[in-house]
Design a protein that fits this description.
Length: 431
């Protein structure tokens, strides 16, 4: 023992460094082993679907993937190919990958006529911003009544994955989360999702933007946009970001004229047209359906947004934060927009609420006991009152947009997204 103690006393620095290095290496290897076990488990599940026989007249499912390679700090392609692509191929799906090159590229690609031709599903590998671009591109198309029936899947690889969090089970590990989202596409489990149609009013020719989460405008939004700048503050970066925001300008309030109609939302249920029965004589000898492509004239979409021309309520709003959100992140069956405005907040209340919101990953307006004013509407108009020369920004599905007058309407059950949460499946309604 004396010799061991003497050896440790003479070489304690090397031994300490070596012990720490071995501990980190062991932890890394264990994590890699656990991730490989998860991949093997989900590959086995996907292979069961791939072994199922295909009808002689059937075709393999085709999935178009919009991949944002810049997501996840440039690791999106690697993680997608390692954790999701093998499952899709083992299940027998035909996968076409389209990579985006710049901001807004997914929006342009999804609006091209040939992009979604003969597509059974769309898969978005990225975050909330990439999802918003793909949804906007799909709903801007002239044939959007047909393309809106294509189910959409999410591979959560972005900085913000708010919608994915509400669609899939709790995030135990990133590998399992990605694998579960890919398995939802394979199993064809879908649920309805509402969409907000946001129409700018400055230009009559401006195109609408479609969002699945909502709009944020105010000091909380501005502080959260700068969180990454204060990475060197470690666990205190949230509180530091809000302190820096109030030091920049306080009191900080946004002002606007809010107009809306207080009326219930009518949920329109759409169904695919029933095919006409084949009455030809050869149908008795050849019962299988023909695979010849049939052109169907586009019909008027009953869910299409018709913006109101008049409003029964108009009021001026001044608040630290103003938000308008859908109910997609909750299990509520009510289809409406929740417009929330913050109460008067002191400096201390602003920092404490922002820190609590960031630590619990709960939007400030949903933190209980804060006294936010909320109204449920199916459509509204917002006319911001901004001093001349001052720059201000919205966040639409966590993506920045310049503040301007807008009209917004909810499109209930407009799209279907793949999901695997039992609560989501139980609350889903067939389209």
């Amino acid at each position: 023992m004396a010799a061991v103690w003497r050896f440790y006393r003479n070489h304690w620095k090397k031994l300490t460094f070596g012990g720490v290095a071995v501990a980190f290496l062991g932890r890394y290897l264990n994590n890699q082993h656990q991730e490989n076990l998860v991949r093997r488990e989900f590959c086995g599940r996907a292979q069961e679907y791939g072994k199922q026989p295909l009808h002689c007249m059937g075709q393999t499912r085709k999935v178009v993937v919009f991949l944002n390679p810049a997501a996840c700090n440039g690791q999106a392609r690697k993680k997608f190919e390692k954790n999701a692509v093998p499952l899709l191929h083992l299940a027998g799906l035909e996968v076409s990958i389209i990579e985006t090159d710049y901001e807004g590229h997914a929006k342009a690609l999804a609006s091209f006529p040939d992009t979604l031709q003969r597509t059974d599903a769309v898969l978005v590998a990225g975050g909330d911003g990439t999802i918003m671009e793909v949804v906007t591109g799909m709903l801007r198309r002239s044939d959007q009544f047909q393309t809106s029936k294509i189910p959409i899947g999410i591979i959560p690889l972005g900085k913000n994955n708010t919608l994915a969090t509400s669609l899939f089970a709790s995030r135990e590990s990133e590998v399992r989360w990605i694998a579960e989202s890919a398995m939802a596409v394979i199993k064809e489990l879908t649920c309805p999702i509402d969409v907000m149609r946001i129409q700018p009013l400055q230009d009559e020719n401006s195109k609408p933007v479609f969002a699945t989460l909502g709009i944020r405008w105010g000091a909380f939004r501005d502080a959260e946009q700068n969180l990454d700048k204060y990475w060197y503050m470690g666990p205190l970066k949230q509180r530091f970001a809000y302190i820096k925001r109030l030091m920049k300008e306080w009191p900080s309030e946004v002002s606007a004229v809010l107009s809306y109609n207080v009326q219930p939302v009518e949920t329109v249920i759409t169904k695919d047209p029933e095919p006409e029965p084949d009455t030809s004589w050869w149908a008795w000898f050849w019962p299988w359906k023909s695979t010849q492509e049939v052109t169907i004239e586009p019909e008027e979409d009953p869910n299409e947004a018709v913006m109101p021309d008049s409003w029964d309520t108009e009021r001026r709003v001044s608040a630290v934060e103003l938000t308008a959100s859908t109910t997609n992140t909750t299990l509520s069956k009510e289809k409406h927009i929740v417009v929330s405005s913050s109460p008067k907040l002191s400096r201390e209340d602003f920092v404490n609420l922002g820190d609590l919101s960031a630590s619990t990953k709960t939007p400030p307006q949903d933190v209980p006991g804060q006294g936010w004013s909320k109204v449920q509407v199916d459509a509204f108009q917002l006319e911001p009152q901004i001093p001349e020369g001052k720059e201000s920004w919205f966040s639409i599905d966590n993506e920045p947009y310049e503040v301007m007058p807008i009209k917004v309407k909810i499109l209930p059950n407009k799209l279907r997204f793949f999901c695997n949460k039992e609560e989501r499946l139980a609350s889903s309604q067939p389209l």
